[in-house]
Amino acid sequence: MRDPGALTRAEIAEQPDRWTDLVTAQRDAWMVAAGLVLRARPELVAFVARGSSDNAALYGQYLVTTRLGIPALSALPSTHSLADRSMRYPRAVQVALSQSGGSPDLLATSRALRAAGVPMVAATNDPRSELARAADVHLSLNAGPELSVAATKSYTAELLAVHTLVQLAAEVPLADLEAELHALAAAGRSMVDDAVAAAPALLAALDGVERVLVVGRGLSTATAKEGALKLMETSGVAASGWSAADAAHGPLGQVGPGSAVIALTAGELGRESVVSVAHAARARGARIIEIGPQVLDPDAGIPVPTAPSPELVPVLEVIPLQALAVELALAHGRDPDAPVGLSKVTLTR
Questions:
Q1: How far apart are CA 24 and CA 177, in angstroms?
Q2: pLDDT, tens digit only, all 349 positions of the chain
Q3: Which of 236, 239, 238 is nearest to 226 (CA)?
Q4: Among residues 259, 268, 220, which one has the least CA distance to residue 241?
């Protein structure tokens, strides 16, 4: 009989080894993808994604704007799959992210953008998928089979796929990025070990908690949203992820005794605003968990190893949230490998 949570735990632990394979196995494809972006000279990058992949796309939006200096947006699948509207785009490139590569609304959206003259780079974990076949260039996430339903290793692979593509478009040498991935993997192995060790203390801090806010800033907003999604989909806890800039505009109103704020402070840029939200939440009676350098006085916390670059902090800081999601689900009598109401391929139309 399968041990509940064993698949997710194994896939969380596997992540650093998979990161080093991302570029090595497909150097030619990466250079073709970078060449497509450079030749297009885009004025806009449009991301096409849903669910966890959409959180990776949010990371990509921040990265494109800061590294390439051009606007980026998340395409709205319902514009094409429900409203059946065509769109006009400036000179653009689309980046489609999907673990399965089979969601009908993503396929409809990516095809609509292709019809509007927007070339597509797709990153999926299935090179035989329909989305992979429809792309101008397909990049394999190389995460290997993901047997747990909730995305873990495919999510961090998407972050790294986006990071690598943007850095190549910024003309960073591929060899430099490969060295960076190896350094990141070393930090990731340490993070996995620390996350497993800290999970019981983090779980204890959530004992009796009815709602959780996960708060980050900048690139770590993607972690906040993905971490909240993992807690929500595996354990059923009422969780939401926010940028610290938005948390003061309403979300803090739901904070009080019986709630917790998970503060993502590992990223130096924007840390001050995350700390400010944590202090305000504590004043309202909330418990505080810190994932970062322990600049707060939290009820529980875990430090994050130094990333090879600031842009890679979100790849490391999501790991404790993945580990916590497993333990919280088990504490609630649920199987994190097979969350209720969740399937691997979301057939949204």
A1: 10
A2: 568 889 999 999 999 999 998 998 899 999 999 999 999 999 999 999 999 999 999 999 999 999 999 999 998 776 655 556 677 889 999 999 999 888 888 898 999 999 999 999 999 999 999 999 999 999 999 999 888 878 899 999 999 999 999 999 999 999 999 999 999 999 999 999 999 999 999 999 999 998 999 999 999 999 999 999 999 999 889 999 999 999 877 888 889 999 999 999 999 999 999 999 999 999 999 999 999 999 999 999 999 999 999 999 999 999 999 999 999 999 999 988 887 655 555 545 4
A3: 239
A4: 220
Cβ–Cβ < 8 Å for 313, 271: no
The label of the residue with tokens 């806009």 reads 44
Residue 257 CB: number of other CB atoms within 10 A? Answer: 11
Distance, in Å, from the CA atom of 343 to the CA atom of 347, rounded to the nearest integer, reads 9
- Compute the half-sphere exposure of residue 9: CA atoms within 13 Å on the CB side of its CA: 16
What predicted TM-score, i.e. pTM, was given to this entire model?
0.94
In angstroms, the CA 257 to CA 284 distance is 7
Name 268's Cβ contacts closer than 8 Å, sequence gap at least 6: 310
Residue keyed to tokens 């991301």:
47
* CA pair distance 259, 211, nearest whole angstrom: 5
